[in-house]
UniProtKB/TrEMBL annotation:
The lineage of its organism: Bacteria, Bacillati, Actinomycetota, Actinomycetes, Micrococcales. It comes from Nesterenkonia xinjiangensis. This is alpha-L-rhamnosidase. GO terms for molecular function: alpha-L-rhamnosidase activity. Residues 231-328 form the Alpha-L-rhamnosidase concanavalin-like domain. InterPro entries: 6-hairpin_glycosidase_sf (IPR008928), 6hp_glycosidase-like_sf (IPR012341), Alpha_rhamnosid (IPR016007), Bac_rhamnosid6H (IPR035396), Bac_rhamnosid_C (IPR035398), Bac_rhamnosid_N (IPR013737), Rhamnosid_concanavalin (IPR008902). Keywords: Glycosidase, Hydrolase. Gene3D superfamilies: 1.50.10.10, Galactose-binding domain-like (2.60.120.260), Maltose phosphorylase, domain 3 (2.60.420.10). One of its GO terms (biological process) is carbohydrate metabolic process. The keyword Hydrolase applies. Residues 1-29 are annotated as: Disordered. SUPFAM superfamilies: Six-hairpin glycosidases.
Length: 778
């Protein structure tokens, strides 16, 4: 077998400054930090006066970034609605900056000798705060820093620049402590004080300043308390009715110096706050009263929570004293889904909330415990579902640039988390992230491919092509002489429900079978990408690799009757969905998969690798009833079991909460993990019946597969919408006796292939064009 070398691209070189916006001077690379110790988050300040004699202000542009997270103000007023800027990127190579137009705030004062104040408060954020489960801090540096430049352009073309340098000053603030995991302490007594200023010094950093391609993080929604009560131990508890990510805004009036403490958690256990799953994350905010009317909002942290425990509140806590502020990256909603089945609707809504909670600048695994990392495996399988629900193109394209940077630095190895905080942790030897792993490292290919399918824009494929090919070549170099990927650590079918909660890796599915199947899928995607980009020689090379690995897979893992090594639901699922079998063995695999699903009494038996695809494997081989059996099962483990237990997000484990109301005893238990919600893609495409027939929905496939057997009365109608690059597409179906009524609305320029042959065998595909159509079958 031909062995390719690993990634020969060099690691990204540190930049000398950001590329200037049109007509603007280059952004300063001088970061400033306090020259003397401060006892709180530093607030940097610079007074300036507009220069007279140049006419009116034509344009005023503020660019800012931080070693930490910052909030910028002009004359005491925030310059934007952004929070937690500049976000988390691979700081060793990429440090994003934000650009704000503040022209309106400065126009009309050019000839008035009015002093303005530019200021910013800087928190620890991801740069200095705790990351990972070993309580490690300061992974990227030792000091907070601010990078800021205001460029004022006048009528006569003159540009006045105010940039961070030693002429600025720093002072303490009311933010006594801040950490993303542990929470924030705010002392309102300091708000009216005249702070003692200290000089600043410049601070070096190596990263290149880059403009973000992704959206900012902002407040998205406010949720009032649904219930306030006293727990058995006498604690004041608050339920917001929804597991969310953000913080509390709290108002109070009490004696000066009194402290209100707010602890956060996703669940209750024995009628008290269930904090054990948080591990080392304190998730606690503290608010010190000024003696007057105070309002607190801890914007330098975030929590994953539904419940809060409030102690020290003066008087009786009422619902109008606090609200939950939902925070995530700004993304337009694109897809909706509803059916006649309310538990299924809640399941879909849980997927939406799981995305919202974990798409906070980085696509994280969970938003609450001492982790919150950009695990590549989670987004590799979830990206297609995410692209149905929201416009995630910019969000994930920016993250993929970090993946590329980390991969270059690691000679082609795609790390398990991006940005890669694990390289700063002491990992157990068996989990040392030193070599690629199927699904996790495959994010380098699967995520850009999902974006291409959703948008039809080849830009992300072109931008990631080197990363995609480097990953595939590294994996090829790891294949054994048999052509199988069977010699490295693999997560495999992680979190198989039949595994011990203390051994999430111990799955029924053979890890090498799973990994080798993924190689074929990845190689085909890269070959198709090469073809799209006009790289025909590469396309032929990668197709040949896919064919060789597929042949090895069939030789070593599949017998003549279609039985696959380890004979479990996941291996059949991947073989079907990844198209690894000939027609005869594919049919046999479908039958065996359906048999195993029935034997399990429709309880989920797949883990991380199989769950995203098992319903598709069933419905695509003529076993739609078994797929609906899985979807509609309410016993544990199942998708609807958490819904029956009151879940409002997708759980990490099928049984994160046990039937008796206690929390799963495993060390790793989250109540907000979106990966198992990948089934939403199948819900849109098969239950709802709406899928792209061509990338970007240039052509649409309308092919609902309603249940027709014992589950026919469970779901009697469904509707889904998709905001595509060409306009809104709507598909709805309902049963009327034995008939199926299908309503389709298409935008101008888009045709749809309507296929109802799964319900009415022999029915021919119809082609319809723009407009509203009502079709009746049966």
């Amino acid at each position: 077998m031909t062995q390719h070398t690993t990634d020969t691209r060099t690691a990204p070189a540190p930049g000398e400054g950001a590329r200037p916006a049109a007509g603007l001077p280059p952004l300063t690379t001088r970061a400033i930090t306090p020259a003397a110790p401060l006892d709180s988050a530093p607030r940097f300040r610079k007074m300036f006066t507009l220069e007279a004699g140049h006419g009116e202000v034509l344009r005023a542009t503020l660019r800012a970034s931080a070693l930490g997270v910052y909030e910028a103000q002009l004359d005491g007023v925030p310059v934007s609605e952004d929070v937690l800027a500049p976000g988390w990127s691979s700081y060793e190579w990429r440090l994003r900056y934000q650009t704000y137009d503040i022209t309106a705030e400065l126009q009309g004062s050019a000839d008035v000798r009015h002093e303005h104040v530019l200021s910013a408060t800087v928190g620890n954020g991801w740069y200095l705060g705790q990351l990972g489960w070993q309580e490690r801090r300061r992974l990227y540096g030792e000091h907070r820093g601010l990078i800021m430049q205001l460029d004022v352009e006048y009528d006569d073309g003159h540009i006045q620049s105010v940039a961070t340098d030693e002429s600025w000053s720093a002072s303490g603030s009311e933010i006594l402590s801040d950490d993303l995991y542990d929470g924030q302490t705010i002392d309102a007594r300091r708000r009216g004080e005249d702070p003692t200023e200290v000089p600043v010094r410049t601070l070096g950093f190596d990263a290149e300043l880059v403009e973000p391609t992704g959206p900012p993080v902002r407040r998205q929604q406010e949720i009032p308390p649904q219930r306030i009560w006293t727990s058995p131990s006498g604690k004041t508890l608050v339920d917001f009715g929804q597991n969310l990510v953000g913080w509390l805004r709290l108002s109070a009036s009490g004696a000066r110096g009194e402290t209100i403490t707010v602890k956060h958690a996703e669940v209750l256990e024995q009628d008290e706050l269930g904090t054990r799953p948080l591990r080392h994350a304190d998730a606690t905010d503290r608010f010190v009263l000024s003696g007057g009317e105070d309002t607190f909002e801890p914007t330098f942290t975030f929590h994953g929570f539904r419940y809060a425990e409030v102690t020290g509140y003066p008087g009786e806590l009422s619902a109008d004293a606090l609200t939950a502020v939902v925070v995530h990256s700004e993304m337009p909603r694109t897809g909706t889904f509803r059916t006649s089945h309310q538990l299924v609707n809640r399941l879909h809504e849980n997927v939406v909330w799981g995305l919202r909670g974990n798409f906070l600048d980085v696509p994280t695994d969970c938003p609450q415990r001492d982790e919150r990392l950009g695990w590549t495996g989670d987004i590799a399988v979830f990206a297609p579902a995410a692209a149905h629900l929201y416009d995630v193109h910019g969000f994930l394209a920016d993250w993929l640039q970090d993946l590329d940077a980390e991969q270059r630095a690691a000679a082609g190895f795609v790390p398990y988390v991006v940005p890669d905080a694990l390289k700063y942790q002491d990992m157990p030897e068996e989990f040392q992230p030193v070599e690629s792993a199927a699904i996790w490292s495959d994010a380098a290919v699967w995520v850009p491919w999902a974006l291409w399918e959703a948008s039809g824009e080849a830009d992300v494929l072109a931008a990631q092509y080197d990363s995609m090919t480097a990953h595939l070549r590294r994996v090829e170099s790891r294949l054994s002489p048999t052509g199988l990927w069977d010699q490295d650590f693999q997560f495999g079918d992680w979190l198989d429900p039949d595994a011990s909660p203390h051994e999430p890796w111990n799955a029924k599915a053979d890890r090498a079978v799973v990994a080798t199947a993924c190689v074929v899928r990845t190689a085909r995607m890269v070959a198709e990408t090469a073809q799209i980009l006009g790289r025909d020689d590469d396309a032929a090379t990668f197709r040949a690799l896919a064919d060789r690995v597929q042949a090895a897979y069939l030789e070593h893992y599949v017998d003549a009757e279609g039985r696959i090594r380890s004979d479990s639901t996941t291996v059949y699922t991947l073989a079907i969905v990844f198209d690894l079998l000939d027609e005869t063995r594919r049919a046999a695999a479908g039958e065996r998969l359906a048999e195993l699903v029935r034997q399990a009494k429709f309880r989920v038996s797949t883990g991380f690798a199989g769950t995203p695809y098992i319903t598709e494997a069933l419905s695509s081989t003529g076993h739609t009833e078994e797929a609906y059996g899985l979807l509609l099962e309410t016993g544990c483990p199942s998708w609807l079991y958490p819904v029956t237990m009151g879940a409002t997000t997708i759980w990490e484990r099928w049984d994160s909460m046990l039937p008796d109301g206690t929390i799963n005893p495993g060390e790793m238990t989250s109540f907000n993990h979106y990966a198992l919600g990948s089934v939403a893609a199948w819900m849109h495409r098969v239950v709802g019946g709406l899928a792209p027939a061509e990338p970007g929905y240039a052509r649409v496939r309308v092919a609902p597969q309603p249940p027709v057997g014992v589950f026919a009365e469970e779901i009697t109608w469904a509707e889904t919408t998709q905001q595509t690059p060409h306009g809104l597409v709507t598909v709805a179906w309902r049963r009327e006796g034995q008939a199926l009524v299908l309503t389709v609305e298409l935008p101008e320029g888009v045709e749809a292939d309507v296929d109802v042959s799964s319900t009415f065998p022999g029915a021919e595909t119809q082609v319809i064009g723009a407009g509203r159509h009502e079709l009746r079958f049966g």
